[in-house]
Amino acid sequence: MAPTKLTIIYYSQTGTVATMAARLAQTAEAQGAEVRLRSVGRDGDEAAEGDPQRPTPEDIVWADVVLFGSPTRYGNIAGRLKVFIDSLGAQWAQGQLADKVYAGFTSSQTLHGGQETTLLALYNTIIHFGGILVTPGYTDGSKFVDGNPYGVSHVTGGGNDIPVGDVTNTALDHLVGRVISISQRLNG
């Protein structure tokens, strides 16, 4: 079976979502996937040497699996990621975004900071794409610990900068394993 092609596209303001994206990429590669890690960057920022490349529509067209990551912004995804997603109209109109596995990940400052609504808002667009949502649900014991069946989320601690640790990393690892497994079944 050909390796799963997995694209991770994210926006990270403080580094938390970037840390989560890097973990997803590392785990996917360890499971044999071909991975493209892409950051939409920050307003006015130029990509520095060593930074992930900026995403293009081709990164999604190429992929079997697409994972989107964003910090929570008032219960929604950040504008920078939304601008990229909104640029995909031509690919959507041609059906190039359909029939792929999609999932999301997010972070917020507080425990009830809109993580679930952020993921649900993201998924509205994926439904329009004709994408196949593969959320973790409660398909693994780790999900009863991190508590988010809609995707993966991390609480940074309201300025305390709680680092991404074992609970979040375990949830990220489970999400990658699940999306790869479902994609392989669909494409097998």
Automatic annotation (TrEMBL):
GO terms for cellular component: membrane. Residues 35-56 are annotated as: Disordered. Residues 35-45 have a biased composition (Basic and acidic residues). PANTHER family: FLAVODOXIN-RELATED PROTEIN WRBA-RELATED, FLAVOPROTEIN-LIKE PROTEIN YCP4-RELATED. Residues 6-188 form the Flavodoxin-like domain. InterPro entries: Flavodoxin/NO_synth, Flavoprotein-like_sf, FMN_Rdtase-like_dom. It comes from Microlunatus sagamiharensis. Coiled coil: none annotated. It comes from the Bacteria. This is NAD(P)H dehydrogenase (Quinone). GO terms for molecular function: FMN binding; NAD(P)H dehydrogenase (quinone) activity.
